[in-house]
Design goal:
The complex is a heterodimer.
Chain A lengths: L2 E5 L2 E4 L5 E8 L5 E7 L5 E9 L2 E4 L6 E6 L2 E6 L8 E8 L7 E2 L3 E5 L1
Parallel strand pairs in A: 2-11
Antiparallel strand pairs in A: 1-3, 3-8, 4-5, 4-9, 5-6, 7-8, 9-10, 9-11
Chain B lengths: L2 E3 L4 E5 L4 E3 L2 E3 L6 E7 L6 E7 L7 E2 L2 E6 L4 E6 L8 E11 L3 E6 L3 E6 L1
Parallel strand pairs in B: 2-12
Antiparallel strand pairs in B: 1-4, 3-9, 5-6, 5-10, 7-8, 8-9, 10-11, 10-12
The chains are: A mainly beta, B mainly beta.
């Protein structure tokens, strides 16, 4: 069966520091991968999606970037965090050609 | 533009009773998909149920059923025999298909369900 992992689970970082969040998927090949952000008490906003290695598309302009160095690895990064980057970050995958997205456990990021 | 509306910020239900969570959508695409996810306090988004726009019958998954009324553009989630563990945030979402082979999900604002003993 397929599983999706995210780490770290929680992170507290000072403003201006770098960020690296990692997401990996097991048990499937060629998945579509997604990064979402959820502000407190709100719905999810799509940040990035990827249909293959090295293929990244951004939904909204922001202080973040994403990379996909391997088929089942998706990384969310920032060179300098802002206070507004605080939130709950969720990684998701969907099968190639599939409808449903399956989410990881998420990372809570607090920028101070 | 596609849009998902959940008008109930909070709902209460007695344990073992049924509850309906409302969701309306707006799209001009003839082909679309509707999803419901559950988000407990731990934060993980748990997929519950899916309904395709061409599906003739309402989707069901155990105690979850989707009341799909295409003409009204509504896709309400019905939870039967509520349990204390059903207390969570519930999000309705709609699939938007883009060229290049990926699906984007548009989420509603969510409904917080509290199940009382």
């Amino acid at each position: 069966s397929q599983t999706i992992h995210q780490w770290p689970a929680t992170l507290v970082q000072p403003v201006g520091s770098p960020l690296s969040l990692e997401c990996t998927v097991e048990g499937t090949s060629n998945p579509n991968l997604y990064w979402y952000r959820q502000a407190a008490g709100r719905g999810l906003q799509l940040l990035f999606y990827s249909v293959g290695i090295g293929q990244i598309s951004s939904e909204v302009p922001q202080n973040l970037s994403a990379s996909r160095p391997q088929d089942r690895q998706f990384i969310l990064s920032s060179k300098k965090l802002l206070l507004s980057d605080s939130g709950f970050y969720l990684c998701a995958w969907s099968p190639l050609g599939g409808e449903t997205q399956y989410f990881g456990p998420g990372t809570r990021l607090l920028v101070l | 533009a596609q849009k998902i509306t959940q008008t109930q910020p909070g709902m209460f239900v007695q344990e073992k009773e049924a509850v309906t969570l409302d969701c309306t959508y707006d799209t001009s695409d003839p082909s679309y998909g509707l999803f419901w996810y559950k988000q407990p306090s731990s934060g993980e988004m748990i997929f519950l149920i899916y309904q395709g726009s061409y599906d003739q019958q309402n989707a069901t998954e155990g105690r979850y059923s989707l009341n799909f009324q295409k003409a009204r553009k509504s896709a309400n989630l019905v939870i039967s025999a509520s349990q204390l563990g059903d207390s969570a945030m519930y999000f309705c979402a709609m699939r938007e298909v883009f060229s290049g082979g990926y699906n984007k999900l548009i989420f509603g604002a969510g409904t917080r369900l509290a199940v009382h003993p």
